[in-house]
Amino acid sequence: MRTMLYAAAIGLLVSWGSASAAGSVVTWTRIEGFGAADVTQIHIGPIYASRPRTVGAGFAALNLNTGYLWFFVKAMSNGNQYDNAPLGAPWPTDVLWGTVVCDSTERYASATWVDTPDIAFTADGDGRFAGLVSLPTACTERPEEIVFLLRHSNRPGNRFIAYGAGRIIR
Question: In 118-158, at which residue ranges do the beta strands (DSSP E only) sit?
Answer without folding.
Answer: 119-120, 127-132, 147-152
